[in-house]
Hints:
The complex is a heterodimer. Chain A is mostly helical.
Amino acid sequence: MIETFSAPLPWYVAGPLIGLVVPLLLLLGGKAFGVSSNLRHLCAAVPVPERWKPSYLRYDWLRTGGWNLVFVLGMGIGGFVAARLFGVPDVGSHISAATRADLAEVGLHDPAGIVPLELFSWEALFTPAGLLLVVAGGFLVGFGARYAGGCTSGHAISGLATFQRSSLAAVIGFFIGGLIVTFGVLPWILV
Amino acid sequence: MSAHDRPSATAVQILDFECQDIEQVPPAQRAEALQAGNRPLALLGYLLVGVGLGVVFVQSEVASWFRIQEMFRFQSFHMYGIIGTAVAVAAIGVQVIQRLGLRTIHGEQIRIVPRDEDGAGIRGPRYWIGGTLFGMGWALLGACPGPIFTLIGSGVTVMVAALASAMAGTWAYGALQRHLPH
Lengths: 191, 182
C-alpha cells in the first residue's frame, strides 16, 4: 500500500509533461525553454557598480530575462505546492536495489528523503563532503552550464528537440562529467 | 553575424541559450522584439507553466539527488524515459508550430531560428569542456539549475547555498570568458 501511494509519477507521464513546456513557452510569447540563462540574469541583477561586472553581465537583464525569472519563480512555487499538497517523496526508498547497494558501499546507508540529508543540510554544509557536493557542485553547475551555453533544459531538451548538433556534444559532455564524478570522485569522499 | 542579416519581422527566437536572443535581433527591431512575449497575460502563463513544471519535478522525483545517481549508474530507466519522451514531445510540438505557422497568444510571429553556434557545431570545444564540467556538477549536486529552484521551494533550503555557488560559477565564467576556448 505504501509503495503504491508513494510511487513516483511514471516516466511516460512526467516526460511528455516536461516536453510540453517547449511548445507552451513558444505559444505564450515565442520564448525558448532554458533555465540556466537565469543564473546569468541573477548575476546581472546583483546591485553592485557596473564596472565591477564582466561585460558578460552588463545588459538589460529585466527586459531580456524578466519572463524567464518569472518562470523559475513559478518552478520554486511548484516545489512548495507539491510539498504542501502531496508531501516530499521519500525517493531514497524508491530507487533501485542496485543503486541502494552501491550507495551503501560508498557510505550512504538507508537512503531516505528527496536528497540525502547527511550531505544536503545546513549542518553538513561545512563538512568536506557538504562543501564538495553543494558548494563545488553548485559552482560547476553554474560555470559549466554557461560555458556550454545551456543546461539540461536548454541543450538536452530544447537543443536535442530541434536537432542541434552542438547540443548533442554538450549532452555527451554532461554524461562524461557525470560518470567521472560518480565512479571516480564519489567513492573517495562519501566513505 | 549572419543572424543579423536574417530578415525578421518580429524577432522571436528559440534557443537563446546565451541570452543572445536580443543581441541577434537587428537594432532597429529590438524594441519591438523585447515587447513581444512580455505582456501581462504571457507573464502569468510563464508563471503557471513554471508552477506545473515544479510540481512535476517533485512528483516524478527528477529533482532528487538519488534519481541522478541512479541515472549515472544506469540502474533504472526512469530518468532516460523522462528525458527521452520530453525530447520527443518537444520536437513534435516545435514541428506542429512550424508546419502550421502558429502564432503566439498575442498574435506575434513565432520564428524558430536553428542556431548554428558560430559554425563550430559538434566540434565546438565549449560544448565538450563546458558540458563535462556541468556534468560533474550535476552528479555532485544531484540537481541541474531548474530543480535547484524547485528544491528550495520544497523546503531543501540549503539549496540556496548551491544557487549562490552556481551564480559564483556563472560570474567566474563571465570573467574568464575571453580566455577560454570556445
